[in-house]
Amino acid sequence: MSNFKPLARSFSAVEGQPTSPLGPTEKFFNDPLHGYIAFDSFCTGVIDTPQFQRLRYLKQLGASYFVFPGASHNRFEHCLGVGYLAGSLVRRFQESQPELGITKRDVRCVQVAGLCHDLGHGPFSHLFDSTIVPRLSPGLGWTHEQGSQMMFEYMVDDNYLDLDQQDVRFINDLIVGKPTSQGAQSQEKLFLFDIVANQRNGVDVDKFDYLGRDCYNVGLKSSCDSSRLMIASRVIDDQICYHHKEVYNLYDMFHTRFSLFKRIYTHRVESAIELMIVDALVQAEPELQLIEALRDPERYLNLTDDILRDIERSRGPELASARALLKRLRRRDLYRFVDEVVLPGHLRGTLTKRHINAEAVVAHQGDNAHLTVDDVTLKWYNLNFGKNDENPVDSIRFYSKFDDRRCFAVPQDA
């Protein structure tokens, strides 16, 4: 007879949720970047919806996974991280600066915005709204932020979340990083709009999470310490400012972003794979009707990276050309990379897309190349530190330990 006794385990009122001395209604996730992170029952209700769970099937770095085996992380864990950081930062301001008047509702809305800011990403993330949608519907101007707002409203209605229309509008404004709706909640405490999507200078918890998470997964070293930045921040003149000693930490952050773009996000093999994915989806559009899904949240809910497998599993002639192209991708019979050129700054006004294009390349081909315009694709990248030709740190304000009520800029040559 066995003496085995099952271990006792207590559960809270929420089914399947273990009790904890840190809070009986909190749910914990063991995140590889931030460690154990907790969410209250309301945020757990947001996470446990079909709209949020969809993010498990969207690779954070899109086609990078075809090149970097470690880039297997998804939008799901990134959004958990951003929600956690957003809640941590706004609570820190609430406790350390009570004069700001941050309410429990403010905290909830900021954290939900952090969780839901990427709900609208399509298959292969930024590739979808930057390339696929413009190819399918030129001039539409659709962005994943618009998709996030659509999917968030659908989430609230479909799951009967306890948010009124004012909260929904406020959270949607927090997602895009600026007040667009009317009402007192969107016109005061403007610093709240800097937490998830900072339109002033790009320093926000979204960047804190994806820079750390992407570096961690692809094996790229980074000296930027976002946890230190959060501790060294405070609100002055209705904007988030940082201790002046953090100026070099912020330069490291923008340098890390540049390095990721240069070495990972615009990798030449990844670019070839992206072009093949785009061509396959464009060929499959008459059957898939992806553009129609942009206006229909119920259809968009099922639009994930699995779309490639859907094409490959098809048997009809309608998707035959797309299937053939994806078969080439699986066999690594990729589009051929030819060359890249770094355009000097003084030539940017002289050599433009009007001068360098597929027609110009074909016109200068060799005698035996036999290239046509359809054989040539050019990709233009504008790699910078986040604000085109400007120094992004010039837009950040700092404070001194001798006077934490006044903010100032730190010039680059200081």
TrEMBL record:
Coiled coil: none annotated. It holds the Pfam family HD. Residues 1-24 are annotated as: Disordered. GO terms for biological process: dGTP catabolic process. This is HD/PDEase domain-containing protein. SUPFAM superfamilies: HD-domain/PDEase-like (SSF109604). GO terms for cellular component: nucleus. One of its GO terms (molecular function) is dGTPase activity. Residues 71-220 form the HD/PDEase domain. CDD domains: HDc.
